[in-house]
Amino acid sequence: MDIPSLMVQFNEWWKTGHVRKEYAKEMRRPLFNNIQKYLPDRQIIGITGLRRTGKTTLMYQFIEHLINNGVNPKNILYFSFDEVLATQPDIIDEVLENYQKVTPRWSSEQIYIFIDEVQYVESWEAVVKRYYDLYPKIKFFVSGSASLQIKKAKESLVGRLYEFVLTPLTFRDFLQMKGVQLPSVVHEFDFKTFETRQADLFLYKDDIGTLLNEYMIKGGFPEILDERSIEKIHKYLRTNTDRIIFQDISKMFDIKEPALLMELLKITAHQSGHVIDYQELARAMKVTRQTISNYMMYLQESFLARKLTNYTGSYLAGTRKAKKFYLQDHALMNALTRHTEEIFSADYAGLVIENICVNHLNAGYFWRRQYEVDIIIKNQAIVPVEIKYRNNPTDIKGLIKFMNKFNSKYGVVITKDTLELKHGDVDILFIPAWLFLTVYIL
What we know:
By secondary structure, the chain is of the alpha/beta class. It folds into 2 domains: about 160 residues, 3-Layer(aba) Sandwich (Rossmann fold), CATH 3.40.50; about 270 residues, no CATH class. It has 20 helices and 15 strands. The chain has a 5-stranded parallel sheet, sandwiched between helices. It has a 5-stranded mixed sheet with strand order 6-8-7-9-10, sandwiched between helices. Strand 9 and strand 10 form a beta hairpin. The protein is globular and about 70 Å long. The chain starts with a helix and ends with a helix.
């Protein structure tokens, strides 16, 4: 493999002085601004997330940002690894040694090095650590599709690496990519603020509703943003998932039965939001409980599945309790269950909206006793959230039970089109899903 030629191909800005517009997309995700604050720091930026969600685009956007802010284009190296390149001995060393010939002033000038798809390269962290320690003026960016690989690297790069997760597009991201002008975000569950935002969006409510239906079908993968064919959308999603299951996870974690992993993902899709019993699954699949536990962890670490644990008020007790799983992108549920209808039934639409809200809130907890609450937000305050994707829902006993037990000041119900604050023994805020997903950020 001719490494110098590849480097020239990857780094066109060495000649042109700019990044192609089709590489550095115009719209920047919120994570761009979060990471930008850490550009002056020495620490390595680690970007993880589900395959095909835009990690490479984010890297190109930072390269463009650096060039636009006066950095010499030759002081920026981008290199992407694949399964073939990664198998070459000392491949990162070879790339960096060749780069030193292009830009030899590593001790006197600030250098930026972007390493894409780093999960394919064995022991990459040892090489990066060596260069990090030897050359204080190098700023590394690394990206990968497996969180566990970055977490393992953190052990040897302790204090040297900050990890950021790029999620699939939120509905607000989706709207912005569709060109919808949006009001500022809301960070608190305040009725008056939501009422104001609803008035701000009055003229666009029908458009947003139509786009929410489209988002429910397509999910948060940027490449299929404008695809109209459900068949093609599902083919894209299933192909991407096959690649993750049968190639990425299988190689990274030495999986002996990738077909079992796929079966567990399909079970998660069909039973989204249901409590999953590892022991029961192990008996049905004729494997050990530990195998099920490990495989479910691999699905989480590869950003395919999200686990919620039963909220108890105690972290240790919660980890031993019942577990629910959702897919990290709701459109995967459509593809894996082969749900091809353009107009969802009321029950299925409710499941999709629940999955969207779980991911939107980065949820980690639910609550289940005699009653149940879909999501428990554990932030500065403990807030129970129920998803009732219909108008004027009344079956919220679980929410009230939770609020009384844990002394929550208020609860939240996500509805189809009801915005209302109900006072009583407890205060409950009803918010339409379209409004909540458009303006609320935790």
